[in-house]
């Protein structure tokens, strides 16, 4: 079986290799490759965007996998559509021109800043990547992502003397609210620290557009060995970078008509949206998708399931997901005019959860579970009270399971380990030590005091949840029952 290379690609798409570089991308992760680069590739093949991507690899390790495959890789889109039909498509993505290591070839990256065709910068450097670090941009390379970006922009400014038509559109895709504004703030601070001058700051302000954006696509990456081998057999070539993605995608970008013109790849999908306000898309994703995930993941995991798909094949867990979304989340969203569309979106979310090809691990969803429960669900619970004046049953069950999930059976080195049956799991949560202390000596009889203490902690919830009539009492009831009879039994009794 041949290895993926330019020679293996369909001759009809060979022309894409000759397109100019129009994008610089910080990050080689699967989300960028399975969403952003995938869409740019699709636009290139439709003669819309007509530009390739130079990728900056900032993390340790070589870029040899990309070089050995001429920058090519395959995205296998796998899932089930709303009609129940299987989707199983493979696309060889030709959008990446080359991958450059920041550690080994920083000057080569700065050289890209002199490219007259460059228009766009993308990034996904994880949530902690967009942070201000006081450092010189004249290192080779600077250490933080914002400093690398500032150095790149300053090189472009020096090359073209601050010309208006050599400004850039910057679209960070890190999963933090107002990612574009926060990245701009970091760059401006770094510019001041490095004394880059008023003219550079003026060019930065008027001709470099930082766009808030929101991305949504489950891209688990490389599948298990058996699936990987079967997919390679099907596509007919070896691909070390092959990645799997779900059919659904969303890329919402905050921008004006200038941004929309530059980001012409938005034409290839109705789910690529350039709008001056993307708060609607952010809120519906945060509350419906992320909120239901965080409410259900500890519940599903402690019920004995490992992935979301398994939950959706269980009558009780499936009903839990459906009911919490349709009855407790969607009605509370402050978008009455879009309520029909929100219900369709909710249906799409449930369909994504039922995708048999996506192995989305519940334990992974519980990473920093405490902060996620606060950010994603506390506002929804409070809205529910304002609207219905009672405790949301499904959220109280989820909250009880979350509290039980945070009970560490033992401490091992710096980790706190919870227990499910005979196995242990790591509680990856900044509040793990707090909960370890709070759970000491708690019995079913003393659960009410424990729940009162935790739910009234403003450091966790930025409010006192015990002031919501009946919330703490209902959480206490379900938590006590879970400790006495088991999580799955409690859920089934409550919901079936």
From TrEMBL:
Keywords: NAD, Oxidoreductase. InterPro entries: 6-PGluconate_DH-like_C_sf, 6PGD_dom2, Mannitol_DH, Mannitol_DH_C, Mannitol_DH_CS, Mannitol_DH_N, NAD(P)-bd_dom_sf. Residues 277-482 form the Mannitol dehydrogenase C-terminal domain. Pfam families: Mannitol_dh (PF01232), Mannitol_dh_C (PF08125). The keyword Oxidoreductase applies. Residues 22-263 form the Mannitol dehydrogenase N-terminal domain. GO terms for molecular function: mannitol-1-phosphate 5-dehydrogenase activity; tagaturonate reductase activity. One of its GO terms (cellular component) is cytosol. SUPFAM superfamilies: 6-phosphogluconate dehydrogenase C-terminal domain-like, NAD(P)-binding Rossmann-fold domains. GO terms for biological process: mannitol catabolic process. Its EC number is 1.1.1.58. PANTHER family: ALTRONATE OXIDOREDUCTASE-RELATED, MANNITOL-1-PHOSPHATE 5-DEHYDROGENASE. This is Tagaturonate reductase. It comes from Runella slithyformis (strain ATCC 29530 / DSM 19594 / LMG 11500 / NCIMB 11436 / LSU 4).
């Amino acid at each position: 079986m041949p290895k993926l290379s330019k020679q293996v690609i369909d001759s009809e798409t060979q022309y894409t290799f000759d397109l100019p570089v129009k994008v610089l991308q910080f990050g080689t992760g699967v989300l960028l490759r399975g969403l952003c680069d995938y869409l740019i590739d699709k636009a290139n093949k439709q003669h819309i965007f007509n530009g390739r991507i130079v990728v900056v690899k900032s993390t340790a390790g070589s870029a040899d996998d990309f070089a050995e495959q001429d920058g090519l890789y395959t995205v296998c889109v796998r899932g089930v559509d709303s009609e129940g039909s299987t989707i199983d498509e493979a696309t060889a993505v030709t959008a990446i021109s080359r991958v450059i290591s920041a550690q080994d070839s920083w000057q080569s990256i700065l050289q890209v800043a002199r490219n007259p065709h460059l228009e766009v910068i993308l990034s996904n450097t994880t949530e902690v990547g967009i942070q201000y670090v006081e450092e010189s941009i004249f290192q080779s390379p600077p250490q933080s992502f914002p400093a690398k970006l500032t150095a790149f922009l300053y090189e472009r400014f020096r090359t073209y003397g601050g010309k208006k038509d050599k400004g850039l559109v910057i679209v960070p895709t890190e999963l933090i609210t107002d990612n574009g504004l926060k990245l701009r703030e970091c760059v401006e601070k770094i510019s001041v620290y490095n004394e880059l001058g008023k003219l550079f700051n003026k060019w930065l302000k008027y001709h470099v557009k930082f766009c808030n954006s929101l991305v949504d696509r489950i891209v688990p990456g490389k599948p298990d060995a058996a699936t990987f081998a079967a997919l390679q057999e099907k596509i007919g070539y070896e691909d070390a970078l092959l990645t799997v993605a779900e059919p659904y995608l969303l890329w919402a970008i905050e921008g004006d008509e200038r941004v929309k013109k530059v980001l012409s790849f938005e034409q290839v999908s109705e789910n690529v949206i350039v709008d001056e306000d993307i708060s609607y898309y952010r809120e519906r994703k945060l509350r419906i998708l992320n909120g239901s995930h965080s409410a259900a993941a500890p519940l599903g995991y402690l019920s004995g399931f490992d992935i979301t798909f398994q939950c959706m094949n269980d009558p009780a867990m499936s009903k839990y997901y459906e009911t919490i979304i349709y009855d407790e989340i969607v009605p509370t969203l402050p978008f009455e005019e879009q309520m029909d569309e929100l219900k369709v979106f909710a249906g799409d979310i449930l369909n994504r959860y039922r995708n048999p090809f996506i192995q989305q691990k519940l334990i992974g969803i519980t990473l920093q579970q405490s902060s996620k429960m606060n950010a994603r669900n506390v506002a929804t619970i409070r809205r529910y009270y304002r609207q219905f004046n009672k405790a949301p049953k499904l959220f109280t069950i989820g909250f009880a399971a979350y509290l039980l999930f945070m009970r560490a059976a033992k401490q091992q080195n710096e980790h706190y380990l919870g227990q499910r049956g005979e196995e242990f799991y790591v509680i990856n949560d900044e509040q793990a030590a707090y909960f370890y202390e709070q759970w000491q000596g708690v019995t079913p009889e003393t659960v009410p005091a424990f729940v009162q203490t935790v739910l009234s902690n403003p450091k966790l919830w930025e409010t006192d949840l015990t002031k919501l009539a009946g919330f703490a009492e209902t959480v206490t009831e379900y938590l006590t029952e879970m400790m006495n009879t088991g999580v799955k039994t409690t859920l089934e009794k409550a919901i079936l």
